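INFO  loader      accepted 1 record
INFO  loader      residues=337
INFO  predictor   begin
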Amino acid sequence: MSDNDALHSAGSAPRVRKVRLADRLREAGGTASIAVFFVAIVIIFSLSTDVFLSSANALNVLRQAAPLLIVAAAMTFVITTGGIDLSVGSVLALVCALSAAMLQADIPWPVTIVAMLALGALIGAAQGFLIAYEGIPAFIVTLAGLSIFRGLALLITGGYSIPISPDTAFVFLGRGWALGVPVPAWIALGCLIVAFLIYGGTRFGRYVTGIGANAEAVRRAGVNVARMRLSVYAISGAAAALAGIILAGRLGSGSSNAGQGFELEVIAAVVLGGTSLFGGRGSILGTVLGALTVSVIANGLILLHMSPFLTPIVTGCIILIAIWLNFRLFRTAGSKT
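INFO  predictor   done
INFO  writer      dumping tokens
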């Protein structure tokens, strides 16, 4: 058997497990259940307020959801390997603050964007190195990153917002429109298509799934598991940086307070979409539905004029119920096979 054949079999071996009837039912059931829940939420809010189903509000939801969709797609790769990245909200805040500071220093916006994306990927790769090569649990590494990068953002801004001139093309990424659709929505759509193709149609995606299912088997088949793990954290960091660029453009400023609790929204969206926190199973389509569900709930509660103090409580309860129903469906689907 040639090296290429060996590598191919390494990626396909875990997939043999995925195509079993039980796994297919779990995957389809998870995506279907969140789709049904999403439709139910839309119907409830449509009947509760007249403006929810308007095209203007739908476009507003898409623009608001774009950063969440981008990072959630990347987080699907991380969680499928059995890992987690708690630092994405702090990386987003750091990129917001740094990009605003660079633009104030008259650094050209294309250079700023490239530098921020490189910084995000570098942060993710550094965390991935500690997790994959040094054996430190992902929870500890990224929890430390959450504190470090938020602290750096505070240090840069001094606790104040750094304004971004509305004349620069940078703000177009957050506020612009193209063909009647917000630019952030187009960027998110492009990222989701790429993530979907990589996750389901490439060896990289198969290896990610295989590592989450049985990392030792994948390693013995000749795949560099540590490098794969490092790669998914680099992707997560770059995605958080892109979300930070979009958010800074939309807000017209860089603030260290940006992305507070963002990592929890991302993880909730991924888990809502049916990706297992234990790794080995995930779905980009489910993640999209999960992220849209989180965004729609937030938007609907605002339109209902709910107290901002009650909103996180209600949102958390709704997400918990959805995940519980999803989990019950998995167990039911699995027990029938």
